[in-house]
Amino acid sequence: MPNDYIVSIDMGGTKQLACVINSSDGIIARVKQSTDSQSTERDYIKSIAKIIKDVIKSSGVGKENIKAVCLGIAASVNPYQGTIYLAPNLGLKNFNIKTRPINCKIFVT
After folding, report:
1. 99 DSSP β-pair partners
2. Which domain holds residue 40?
3. Count of domains in the chain?
4. 94 Cβ partners below 8 Å, 6+ apart?
5. Domain of 27: which CATH number?
6. Distance from C-alpha of 8 to C-alpha of 82, rounded to nearest angstrom
7. Model's pTM, two decimal places?
8. Please, how many CA atoms are within 13 Å of residue 92, restricted to the half-sphere of its CB?
9. Considering only CA atoms, which of 98, 71, 55, 68 is closest in space to residue 4?
């Protein structure tokens, strides 16, 4: 279990913060990038994929040790389906993150 990690992302209207963490070591690495409020859904997927890639690289942890990505977003969401019903700060509406091409488990809160 100590070699299992998650990527946690706080997706806000002005910035995205990501970290790689595990239960024994806490935060291993952090990355911050700006959020463009005029982005399209496709742009958001690209920016999430980029921050995931960047924070994993910064951590030195192997991709095979990342067990999930947890996405925190100020929105009304269905965490079971991965649907972001309304995120007014991001302009997202009825957006299902789990149907997008990010190759790992995604949890939305």
Report:
1. none
2. 5-108
3. 1
4. 83, 84, 85, 86
5. 3.30.420.40
6. 15
7. 0.83
8. 27
9. 68
